[in-house]
Automatic annotation (TrEMBL):
Gene Ontology biological-process annotations: translation
Biased composition, class Acidic residues, residue ranges: 235-244
Region listing for Disordered, in residue ranges: 230-294
GO cellular component assignments: cytosolic small ribosomal subunit
Gene (name only): rpsB
Entry GO MF terms: structural constituent of ribosome
UniProt keyword ATP-binding, yes or no: no
Protein name: Small ribosomal subunit protein uS2
Keyword Aminoacyl-tRNA synthetase: no
Length: 294
Protein backbone atom coordinates (compact mmCIF):
# COMPACT_ATOMS: atom_id res chain seq x y z
CA UNK A 1 0.00 0.00 0.00
CA UNK A 2 2.87 2.35 0.86
CA UNK A 3 4.49 1.56 -2.46
CA UNK A 4 1.27 2.51 -4.28
CA UNK A 5 1.08 5.75 -2.28
CA UNK A 6 4.67 6.68 -3.14
CA UNK A 7 4.08 5.85 -6.82
CA UNK A 8 0.89 7.90 -6.79
CA UNK A 9 2.81 10.82 -5.26
CA UNK A 10 5.47 10.58 -7.98
CA UNK A 11 2.80 10.54 -10.68
CA UNK A 12 1.16 13.58 -9.10
CA UNK A 13 4.45 15.50 -9.05
CA UNK A 14 5.09 14.59 -12.70
CA UNK A 15 1.70 15.99 -13.75
CA UNK A 16 0.30 12.67 -14.97
CA UNK A 17 -3.17 13.67 -13.73
CA UNK A 18 -3.63 16.62 -16.12
CA UNK A 19 -5.99 15.82 -18.99
CA UNK A 20 -7.20 17.84 -21.99
CA UNK A 21 -9.81 20.58 -22.13
CA UNK A 22 -13.35 19.54 -21.40
CA UNK A 23 -14.48 20.33 -24.95
CA UNK A 24 -11.90 17.86 -26.37
CA UNK A 25 -12.76 14.91 -24.15
CA UNK A 26 -13.80 11.45 -25.27
CA UNK A 27 -16.90 10.21 -23.36
CA UNK A 28 -15.39 6.70 -23.13
CA UNK A 29 -12.75 8.12 -20.76
CA UNK A 30 -15.43 9.00 -18.19
CA UNK A 31 -14.56 6.11 -15.78
CA UNK A 32 -10.98 7.42 -15.55
CA UNK A 33 -11.80 11.09 -14.95
CA UNK A 34 -11.71 12.21 -11.31
CA UNK A 35 -12.97 15.80 -11.65
CA UNK A 36 -12.99 18.93 -13.76
CA UNK A 37 -11.03 22.04 -12.80
CA UNK A 38 -11.00 25.31 -14.76
CA UNK A 39 -12.25 23.57 -17.89
CA UNK A 40 -9.58 20.83 -17.71
CA UNK A 41 -10.28 17.21 -16.84
CA UNK A 42 -8.30 15.66 -13.98
CA UNK A 43 -7.40 11.96 -14.35
CA UNK A 44 -8.00 9.62 -11.41
CA UNK A 45 -4.48 8.56 -10.33
CA UNK A 46 -5.83 5.52 -8.45
CA UNK A 47 -6.99 4.12 -11.79
CA UNK A 48 -3.67 5.13 -13.37
CA UNK A 49 -1.67 3.22 -10.72
CA UNK A 50 -3.83 0.10 -11.12
CA UNK A 51 -3.59 0.09 -14.92
CA UNK A 52 0.13 0.91 -14.85
CA UNK A 53 0.90 -2.04 -12.56
CA UNK A 54 -1.29 -4.36 -14.67
CA UNK A 55 0.47 -3.22 -17.86
CA UNK A 56 3.91 -3.61 -16.27
CA UNK A 57 3.10 -7.17 -15.12
CA UNK A 58 1.89 -8.15 -18.62
CA UNK A 59 4.96 -6.66 -20.33
CA UNK A 60 7.22 -8.36 -17.78
CA UNK A 61 5.76 -11.76 -18.72
CA UNK A 62 6.18 -11.05 -22.44
CA UNK A 63 9.83 -10.08 -21.89
CA UNK A 64 10.37 -13.14 -19.70
CA UNK A 65 9.13 -15.37 -22.52
CA UNK A 66 11.84 -13.95 -24.81
CA UNK A 67 9.55 -12.03 -27.17
CA UNK A 68 10.13 -8.51 -28.49
CA UNK A 69 8.20 -5.39 -27.42
CA UNK A 70 8.27 -2.45 -29.82
CA UNK A 71 8.18 1.13 -28.50
CA UNK A 72 6.41 3.71 -30.68
CA UNK A 73 6.51 7.46 -29.98
CA UNK A 74 6.89 9.98 -32.82
CA UNK A 75 5.86 13.02 -30.74
CA UNK A 76 8.64 15.56 -30.35
CA UNK A 77 8.58 15.59 -26.54
CA UNK A 78 8.65 11.77 -26.27
CA UNK A 79 11.21 10.78 -28.95
CA UNK A 80 14.41 10.93 -26.92
CA UNK A 81 12.89 9.47 -23.74
CA UNK A 82 11.37 6.45 -25.49
CA UNK A 83 14.43 5.71 -27.66
CA UNK A 84 16.73 5.78 -24.59
CA UNK A 85 14.42 3.46 -22.63
CA UNK A 86 14.13 1.02 -25.56
CA UNK A 87 17.92 0.91 -25.97
CA UNK A 88 18.34 0.10 -22.26
CA UNK A 89 16.40 -3.15 -22.64
CA UNK A 90 17.52 -3.85 -26.24
CA UNK A 91 14.02 -3.54 -27.73
CA UNK A 92 13.02 -2.17 -31.17
CA UNK A 93 11.57 1.33 -31.42
CA UNK A 94 10.18 3.86 -33.90
CA UNK A 95 10.57 7.49 -32.86
CA UNK A 96 11.15 9.47 -36.07
CA UNK A 97 8.34 8.51 -38.41
CA UNK A 98 6.06 5.53 -38.68
CA UNK A 99 6.51 4.04 -42.13
CA UNK A 100 3.23 2.82 -43.56
CA UNK A 101 3.37 -0.97 -43.61
CA UNK A 102 6.18 -1.28 -41.09
CA UNK A 103 4.30 -4.25 -39.62
CA UNK A 104 1.83 -5.33 -42.31
CA UNK A 105 4.51 -5.14 -45.03
CA UNK A 106 7.37 -6.28 -42.83
CA UNK A 107 9.21 -8.29 -45.51
CA UNK A 108 9.68 -5.21 -47.69
CA UNK A 109 10.83 -3.16 -44.70
CA UNK A 110 13.37 -5.88 -43.88
CA UNK A 111 14.77 -5.54 -47.41
CA UNK A 112 15.30 -1.82 -46.78
CA UNK A 113 17.04 -2.63 -43.49
CA UNK A 114 19.35 -5.11 -45.25
CA UNK A 115 20.12 -2.48 -47.89
CA UNK A 116 21.03 -0.01 -45.14
CA UNK A 117 23.29 -2.59 -43.49
CA UNK A 118 25.00 -3.41 -46.81
CA UNK A 119 25.70 0.31 -47.44
CA UNK A 120 27.11 0.63 -43.94
CA UNK A 121 29.35 -2.38 -44.50
CA UNK A 122 30.51 -0.98 -47.85
CA UNK A 123 31.40 2.38 -46.32
CA UNK A 124 33.23 0.81 -43.39
CA UNK A 125 35.30 -1.36 -45.73
CA UNK A 126 38.70 0.34 -46.05
CA UNK A 127 39.59 -1.63 -49.18
CA UNK A 128 36.71 -0.14 -51.18
CA UNK A 129 38.90 2.28 -53.09
CA UNK A 130 36.90 1.87 -56.28
CA UNK A 131 34.26 4.33 -54.96
CA UNK A 132 34.74 7.96 -55.83
CA UNK A 133 34.34 10.72 -53.29
CA UNK A 134 30.94 11.69 -54.70
CA UNK A 135 29.67 8.09 -54.57
CA UNK A 136 30.81 7.78 -50.96
CA UNK A 137 29.05 11.03 -50.05
CA UNK A 138 25.81 9.91 -51.75
CA UNK A 139 25.88 6.53 -50.00
CA UNK A 140 26.57 8.18 -46.65
CA UNK A 141 23.57 10.47 -47.08
CA UNK A 142 21.33 7.56 -48.04
CA UNK A 143 22.52 5.57 -45.04
CA UNK A 144 21.89 8.47 -42.64
CA UNK A 145 18.40 9.00 -44.05
CA UNK A 146 17.52 5.29 -43.74
CA UNK A 147 19.11 4.93 -40.32
CA UNK A 148 17.03 7.82 -39.00
CA UNK A 149 13.82 5.93 -39.78
CA UNK A 150 14.91 2.28 -39.68
CA UNK A 151 17.72 2.38 -37.12
CA UNK A 152 15.44 1.37 -34.26
CA UNK A 153 14.25 -1.81 -35.99
CA UNK A 154 17.58 -2.86 -37.56
CA UNK A 155 17.92 -5.84 -35.18
CA UNK A 156 14.23 -6.84 -35.34
CA UNK A 157 14.23 -10.05 -37.38
CA UNK A 158 10.56 -10.90 -36.79
CA UNK A 159 7.32 -9.16 -35.87
CA UNK A 160 7.11 -7.99 -32.24
CA UNK A 161 4.77 -9.65 -29.75
CA UNK A 162 3.56 -6.32 -28.35
CA UNK A 163 3.48 -2.57 -29.07
CA UNK A 164 3.85 0.17 -26.46
CA UNK A 165 2.42 3.45 -27.77
CA UNK A 166 2.68 6.98 -26.40
CA UNK A 167 -0.54 8.80 -27.43
CA UNK A 168 -2.66 6.25 -29.27
CA UNK A 169 -4.44 9.03 -31.17
CA UNK A 170 -1.20 10.28 -32.68
CA UNK A 171 0.02 6.74 -33.46
CA UNK A 172 -3.25 5.57 -35.01
CA UNK A 173 -1.54 3.99 -38.07
CA UNK A 174 0.73 1.81 -35.92
CA UNK A 175 -2.27 0.86 -33.77
CA UNK A 176 -4.34 -0.12 -36.83
CA UNK A 177 -1.51 -2.30 -38.21
CA UNK A 178 -1.03 -4.01 -34.84
CA UNK A 179 -4.76 -4.71 -34.56
CA UNK A 180 -4.82 -6.15 -38.07
CA UNK A 181 -2.00 -8.58 -37.22
CA UNK A 182 -3.35 -9.49 -33.78
CA UNK A 183 -0.40 -7.93 -31.90
CA UNK A 184 -1.06 -7.03 -28.25
CA UNK A 185 -1.17 -3.25 -27.75
CA UNK A 186 -0.29 -1.15 -24.70
CA UNK A 187 -0.66 2.61 -24.64
CA UNK A 188 -0.80 5.86 -22.73
CA UNK A 189 -4.35 7.20 -23.12
CA UNK A 190 -5.27 10.82 -22.50
CA UNK A 191 -8.79 12.19 -21.98
CA UNK A 192 -9.23 12.86 -25.72
CA UNK A 193 -8.73 9.19 -26.78
CA UNK A 194 -10.73 5.97 -26.73
CA UNK A 195 -9.21 3.53 -24.16
CA UNK A 196 -11.00 0.57 -25.77
CA UNK A 197 -8.76 0.75 -28.85
CA UNK A 198 -5.83 -0.78 -26.98
CA UNK A 199 -5.67 -4.04 -25.04
CA UNK A 200 -3.97 -2.43 -22.02
CA UNK A 201 -4.58 1.29 -21.46
CA UNK A 202 -2.80 3.61 -19.02
CA UNK A 203 -4.87 6.74 -18.38
CA UNK A 204 -2.24 9.48 -18.22
CA UNK A 205 -1.08 12.80 -19.59
CA UNK A 206 0.68 11.93 -22.86
CA UNK A 207 1.84 15.48 -23.67
CA UNK A 208 4.09 16.43 -20.72
CA UNK A 209 7.71 15.24 -20.89
CA UNK A 210 7.84 14.33 -17.18
CA UNK A 211 4.64 12.31 -17.45
CA UNK A 212 5.91 10.34 -20.47
CA UNK A 213 9.27 9.81 -18.75
CA UNK A 214 7.89 8.40 -15.48
CA UNK A 215 5.45 6.03 -17.22
CA UNK A 216 8.01 4.81 -19.77
CA UNK A 217 10.73 4.32 -17.15
CA UNK A 218 8.33 2.29 -14.98
CA UNK A 219 7.47 0.09 -17.95
CA UNK A 220 11.16 -0.28 -18.88
CA UNK A 221 12.05 -1.34 -15.32
CA UNK A 222 9.40 -4.08 -15.48
CA UNK A 223 10.73 -5.32 -18.85
CA UNK A 224 14.31 -5.32 -17.50
CA UNK A 225 13.13 -7.36 -14.51
CA UNK A 226 11.49 -9.90 -16.83
CA UNK A 227 14.68 -10.18 -18.91
CA UNK A 228 16.76 -10.67 -15.75
CA UNK A 229 14.45 -13.47 -14.56
CA UNK A 230 14.69 -15.11 -17.99
CA UNK A 231 18.49 -14.99 -17.85
CA UNK A 232 18.52 -16.41 -14.30
CA UNK A 233 16.18 -19.26 -15.31
CA UNK A 234 18.35 -19.97 -18.34
CA UNK A 235 21.49 -20.19 -16.18
CA UNK A 236 19.72 -22.51 -13.73
CA UNK A 237 18.65 -24.80 -16.58
CA UNK A 238 22.20 -24.87 -17.95
CA UNK A 239 23.53 -25.68 -14.47
CA UNK A 240 21.01 -28.51 -14.07
CA UNK A 241 21.97 -29.91 -17.49
CA UNK A 242 25.67 -29.76 -16.55
CA UNK A 243 24.97 -31.54 -13.24
CA UNK A 244 22.94 -34.22 -15.02
CA UNK A 245 25.74 -34.73 -17.56
CA UNK A 246 28.34 -35.01 -14.80
CA UNK A 247 26.19 -37.51 -12.87
CA UNK A 248 25.59 -39.56 -16.01
CA UNK A 249 29.29 -39.55 -16.89
CA UNK A 250 30.22 -40.63 -13.34
CA UNK A 251 27.63 -43.43 -13.44
CA UNK A 252 28.86 -44.68 -16.82
CA UNK A 253 32.45 -44.59 -15.60
CA UNK A 254 31.53 -46.55 -12.47
CA UNK A 255 29.64 -49.13 -14.55
CA UNK A 256 32.61 -49.45 -16.92
CA UNK A 257 35.03 -49.94 -14.02
CA UNK A 258 32.74 -52.53 -12.39
CA UNK A 259 32.41 -54.41 -15.69
CA UNK A 260 36.19 -54.36 -16.16
CA UNK A 261 36.72 -55.73 -12.63
CA UNK A 262 34.25 -58.58 -13.20
CA UNK A 263 36.00 -59.55 -16.44
CA UNK A 264 39.39 -59.60 -14.67
CA UNK A 265 38.11 -61.86 -11.90
CA UNK A 266 36.48 -64.19 -14.46
CA UNK A 267 39.74 -64.62 -16.35
CA UNK A 268 41.76 -65.38 -13.20
CA UNK A 269 39.27 -68.03 -12.06
CA UNK A 270 39.36 -69.61 -15.51
CA UNK A 271 43.17 -69.76 -15.34
CA UNK A 272 43.19 -71.51 -11.93
CA UNK A 273 40.55 -74.10 -12.81
CA UNK A 274 42.01 -75.23 -16.14
CA UNK A 275 41.48 -78.82 -17.55
CA UNK A 276 43.61 -81.42 -15.68
CA UNK A 277 45.38 -84.37 -17.38
CA UNK A 278 43.89 -87.75 -16.67
CA UNK A 279 46.35 -90.23 -15.21
CA UNK A 280 46.55 -93.61 -17.01
CA UNK A 281 44.64 -96.40 -15.31
CA UNK A 282 46.60 -99.16 -13.68
CA UNK A 283 49.12 -96.85 -12.14
CA UNK A 284 52.25 -97.88 -14.10
CA UNK A 285 53.92 -98.31 -17.47
CA UNK A 286 52.20 -100.38 -20.02
CA UNK A 287 53.32 -104.03 -20.09
CA UNK A 288 54.18 -105.64 -23.42
CA UNK A 289 51.54 -107.97 -24.69
CA UNK A 290 52.17 -111.69 -24.58
CA UNK A 291 53.30 -113.24 -27.82
CA UNK A 292 54.66 -110.06 -29.15
CA UNK A 293 58.01 -109.44 -30.67
CA UNK A 294 60.90 -108.88 -28.39
Amino acid sequence: MEQNTSLQQQLLEAGVHFGHLKKKWNPKMLPYIFAEKKGIHIIDLNKTVDHLQETAAALKQIAKSGKKIMFVATKKQAKEIVSDCAKKVNMPFATERWLGGMLTNFNTVRKSVKKMQSIEKLLSDTNAESLTKKERLTLARDKDKMEKVLGGIAQMSRLPAALFLVDIGHEHIALAEAKRLGITTFGMVDTNCDPNKVDFSIPANDDATKSVAIITNYITAAIAEGLAERQAAKEEDEEEVDNENETRAARLQAEAEAEGGNRGRGRSSEGNSGPKRRAPQGGGARKPQAGGKR
